[in-house]
Every structure is written in C-alpha cells, then in structure tokens.
Amino acid sequence: MSGGADGDDGKAGDDVAASEPQDPADDRAENADGSASEVSGPIQRFESLSLFRAVILLTVVALIARVVFLGARYAHWDEARVAYWAYFYAETGSLGYHWEEHGPLVQIAARWLFEPFGVGDTATRLPVAVVGGLLPMAALLYRRYLRDSEVVALALFLAFNSVLLYYSRFMRSDVLVAAFMFAALGMLIRFADTRRYRYLYGAGLFVALGFGSKENAIIYLVTWAGATVLVADQWLYSPAGPDSGASRLGRSWASRWWRRLVATLSAWAETLRLSLQSSPADGADQGDGVTGLAMTTGKRVGLLVSRLAGLVVVVLATVLFIFADRGAGVRGRQPYLSEENDRVALGEVLGQPGKTPAFVTDTLEHAYEGYADWFAKSSERTLETYLDFIEGFAGVLAQNATVLLVFAVLGILIERYGRENPRWLVMFMTYCAVASFVGYPLGTDISGAWGGVSAHIVVPLAVPAAVGTAWLYRELLAVRASKDDVATAILAAVLLLAAVQVGFTAVDDVYRNPAAEDNELVQYAQPQNLGPVVDTLDRAAAETDGRTAILYYGPRGDAFDSDVALVPEEGSTAFWDIRPTCSDWPNTQPMNWYFAVTEASVDCERSSEQLRATIESDPPPVILAVPEDGTVPTAALSSSYERDVYYTRTVGRELVVYTHESWT
C-alpha cells in the first residue's frame, strides 16, 4: 500500500485518477503499433460512463433483482425459526441473542419492517436483500488497486452471481457477514491509503455489524491475518534483481512512519538534554523550545488517542446495541424454566443510566458465551463430515459459480505469472478464497453442506475473476481495433456465452426453481409448495373466531417416533415459548411461522378418540398429521375432509393436511 498524508484532511488518495497505479490507456483498445485507439459505437458509449455511474447502475439493478418476487418461495426451516423470533420480538418486546439463531441483527431489522410490509416472508428477507443488493457498491472501495474495467467486472460478479443472488433473497446471515466484512476490508485499505479516519470508523462499524450478523465473522479476521502473511512474504521475496525485499520494506509507508516517530522522539530527547545543560541566560529560550515541542507532541498524541477512542465507541456501541437483551431477553421465550434473567436489558439501561457498567458487562459476557457455544458445536467434525462439506461446496461452486471460477483461474494466472509485480490485493483475495474453501467446513455449526456458506468463497474469488474478465475485455477491444474479425468474434462469443450462462443459472435457480431438489443451492430443509394450506389457514383465521387447526400425533410407547411427531409425548413441556406451545418445534416448522403469519389459532391432540369426537362436534378447518401415524381416524375424516400431502423438506419429509370440505 502506498502512503498518504498523515492528517485526516490530507489530499492523498482523494483523487483516484491521480493515484491509481495504472496506465491510463489500459482500458482502451490498441492499434497494431501499440498506440491507443478510440473505439466507436456501443463500446465507446460504455467507456464514456464514469466508473461511479456504472457501478451505481449495476447496484440499482442488483437491488431490483433481489426484491422482485421476494416472498414467492416459502420459508426454509432455518428461515422460519429466525423469522418466528423476529415476530415474537414484535409481539412481546422480548429478544435475546442465542447462537443457534446466530447474530440477532437480522431479527432486529425484520421486526421493524413488519409494520410497513406486514408479517411475512418478504419483510423478513428484505434486510438481507438490501444489503446483498448494495454489495456491488463496495467494489469502489478497491478502485485504487484495480483498473476501472476490473472494478466494473467485480461489481457485476457481486450483483449477479447466483450464489449471492439466491442467498440475498434468504433470511440467513451469510450474505450479511460477507458483505459487511468485504466492505470493512475495503474501508481499512482506504484508511491506509488516505489516513482519513472516517474510513477507520466505517471499518469498525462494518466489522461490528458482521459480528452481530453471525459468529463466523471471526473467521474473516483469521483469514485476513493468514493472507497478509502470505502477501508480505511474496512482496519481500526477490530471488533475482537488485531490488531486494529489505529495500522495498525500507521504502514502505510503515517504515517511513516508524522513522518519523523515531526522529520526533529523538528530537524531543535532544531538546530536553540541551535544556538541562543550558545556562540560566539561555534557559528561557531552551525552555520555550521544550515546552513547544511537548505541546506539539502532546497534541498529536491526544488527537491519536481521541480518534482511537472514537473507534472503540463506534464498535462497542454497535455491538452492545445488537447483542443487548430486549425485554426479558432469551428468558422471555422460556416460560417453563424457573431461572430468572438478571442481565440488564437495553430498555432498562436507557431508563437508568447508572446501570451502564452492568449492562456492558452482562451483554459482552452473554455474547462471549454464545460465541463459545457456537465454536464448541462447530468443532464437532470428523474427516467424513469434513469431506462431505468440501464436496458440497465444490458442487455449489461448479454449478452456480462456473464463470466466476473460470475467470478467477485466468485472473490468478495473469496476475501471478503475467505481471512483473503481482498486485497484492489480487493475491490477498485469492489466498482468502482458498483458505475459506478449505477452512469453512471447520467453522460452521450445521451438519451438512450449505450453499449460503459458499458466499464467503465467492466474494473474495470475485476479485481475481474480475481481473480475468477485464483482461479478456481489453483483448477484445485490442483485436477489434486491429480489424481482426475472427479473433473479435471468438472473444465476443466467449464473453457473451459467459454472460448467458450467468444469467440462465440465476434465472433458473433463483426464480424458476428456487425449491427444486436438484438445485445445488437448495438445502434439504426447504419445503415445497405450501401455498394451498397457508391460504386456507389465512382465510379460516380471518373468517372464524374459533380454532383454525389441530396438530395431531397419536402413537405412544415404543411406537412414538420423536423424529416426525408433531406433538411431544404426554407430560413433555416445551423448551421455547413457541405457539402453539404443545407443538414439537423441529418437526412442525415452518408451519409455526405460518401459524404466526396467518394469525391462526392452533391446538394439539394426542388422542384418536378425542380427535374423532372433535370432528363430529366442532370440526376444525384444518388438521395436520404425518403419514407414519397409523392412529389417525381416517374413517371419520374421509366423509368431510380432503386429504393432501405437502413436503416440508426437499428430501421428502411429508406433512398430511386434512382440509374440511367447507374450506377446500
């Protein structure tokens, strides 16, 4: 990284065009003799767009792509449980961080969207969609180390890669973490280049948001540290040539900063020594010099301390706001536990500022405990499960990041072996992507490969992919300017086919088949079409005052199957305050979420005889059961109920729904 002005108001790095380490003709075509050539037609009009306008345009399109038909896909099991707690927060005022739901940021954001957009899938997914849609804007933070065409290509990959697009339309926090940490790194780079502390504060804010989104944000810090070591080694190692790594280190901004600090301290020490040795006649002059130097140094130190304190305040305030208990916190949704929550909640400290120290301690300790539990769960890995993760990631990347992978390999080869001095940013991101592919299976708590985690590989890999894409684009301009029609047609066809593949994959996997079993992005807990049963629950809840639905499961003793039962065994109590509290949360989701969305009144039943009597006396609009339950009174149901089967998992978890004839 090159240095800039020391002060916050310095101009270094502000004018990107003046500071970018690139040839101004890099993004233009060349004639056969190497001279720059103007290109006419559509390409010239594209080139005339400013970098910022091009990226902003892509960002607008990315936002539209993420919000259109946002609620069309029914909630995944994991979406449903997180969405339910956002609803619970809106209804009760209680919310607390629990590592199984990950950082509470998305729940806090979704809760405040229920009023304008209504309780439903659209409102819960909107925070992720907006952040994912704005992600292409972060490409501008890296513009000093990339050509303009590379920045635009990077924004394109961030906008339209199907992994990022699919999981930007998903209430899960992987895209949030990837976006926040990518922006934070860009802010840190801008700070190193410009010394403008607003970038440092921005980096701190985004890191805090990343940690408030999901626990694996900490893996980014480890990945950055490892990539920094590799880049530093590459930068310092020079087996040939007069320019050694030591000489480059001596010219770096860090070395200049260190020499300036040493010189300042030495001058101060020398002035102090002379003042002590001076005679009374000239003591006043020496004293004035010492006093002036001390005041100047003290002012600089004070300014630095105040800025670092500001950074701490930004990070700490963001973390506390996100992780703080609301209402009764987690205990608010555990009604059957006798323990009381003695942590100071956010509302409590706002009314009683004197509890601030206890509030800070309680919140940070609770967040630490949650992170520790998450890492303990994540560490439960065998070689077999690790290889399953790797295979799953490879499948997602091969099907949904094909173009990105191909151009990334091309970009890495060009950067590593085609340049005299490979750019550190491109290699840094390459190392981060490789480390993420190998390391993320060790840093996630789920038991199967999850396509969303691939976002942490796709985002850094998009940088070398942008290098490869921009290189091919410049080659196209060059051969077109040289009137080589055959080469022009070939290169244009390659770029066109790449664009078509990206577009087709995105449309097919994100919009046409977002819940298909053969879609690599779909995790096994994604239900199929629940539309008819949700519509029936919605209509029945709106048009009746009584019971809307009954959850039924009858087998007892050895016949009880806890893996499919919709109702727990007799005498069991619910751990979470999930409505209805008689439901078995792992087996009934995402229906609990849709009970909340439709405001359905739902009861549970364990007795076949009692269910038969209810059907005869006061038949509910909907009865839900499972195919494995042989105690369902099918004879009583067959006369007035229509039977349908829905899948609450892509792998075949079946839910049997009996709808009364008056509601079919």
What does this structure look like?
- The protein is mainly alpha-helical.
- The protein has two domains: 16-237 and 375-512, no CATH class; 531-663, D-Maltodextrin-Binding Protein, domain 2 (3-Layer(aba) Sandwich).
- The protein has 27 helices and seven strands.
- It has helices at residues 16-19, 42-48, 51-67, 77-92, 105-111, 114-117, 121-134, 148-160, 162-167, 174-194, 197-213, 217-236, 245-251, 253-277, 283-323, 346-351, 356-378, 383-400, 402-417, 424-439, 455-481, 485-512, 531-543, 585-588, 591-598, 608-617, 634-638; strands at 29-30, 36-37, 549-552, 602-605, 622-625, 641-647, 654-660.
- The strands form two sheets. A five-stranded mixed β-sheet has the order 4-3-5-7-6. A two-stranded antiparallel ribbon has the order 1-2.
- A hairpin with a 6-residue loop joins strand 6 (641-647) and strand 7 (654-660).
- Helix 4 runs parallel beside helix 25 (591-598), helix 10 runs antiparallel to helix 11 and helix 19 (402-417) packs across helix 21 (455-481).
- The longest helix is centred in the middle third of the chain and has 41 residues, at 283-323.
- 43% of the residues are buried.
- Mean pLDDT is 85; it is low at 1-40.
Q: What is the CA-based Rg, rounded?
A: 30 Å
Our count of helices gives 27
Strand order of the largest sheet: 4-3-5-7-6
Task: Report the oligomer.
Answer: single chain
**SS elements, strand count:** 7
User: How far do the termini sit from each other?
Assistant: 67 Å
Q: Briefly note the structural class of the backbone.
A: mainly alpha
Helix content: 55-70%
Principal-axis shape: globular
Count of discrete structural domains: 2
Mean pLDDT: 85
Strand coverage percent: under 5%
**How would a crystallographer describe the biggest sheet?**
5 strands, mixed
- Detail the poorly predicted runs: 1-40
